[in-house]
Amino acid sequence: MNGYNENYSEKGHYSDEPEPGSFVRAFDAFPKSKPQYVTRTSGGGKWTVAMAVVSVFLLWTELARWWRGEESHTFAVEKGVGHSMQLNLDIVVNMKCKDLHVNVQDAAGDRIFAASRLKEDPTTWAQWVDAKGVHKLGKDTHGRAITGAGWHDEEGFGEEHVHDIVAMGRKKARWGKTPRLWGAEPDSCRIFGSLDLNRVQGDFHITARGHGYADAPGTHLDHGAFNFSHVISELSFGPYYPSLVNPLDRTINIATSNFFKFQYFMSVVPTIYSVGSEGSSPSADRTIFTNQYAVTEQSKEVNHYMVPGLFFKYDIEPILLHVEERRPTLLSFAVKVVNILSGVLVAGHWGFTMTEWLREVIGRRRKRQSEGVIGAKGGYDD
Question: pTM of this prediction?
Answer without folding.
Answer: 0.65
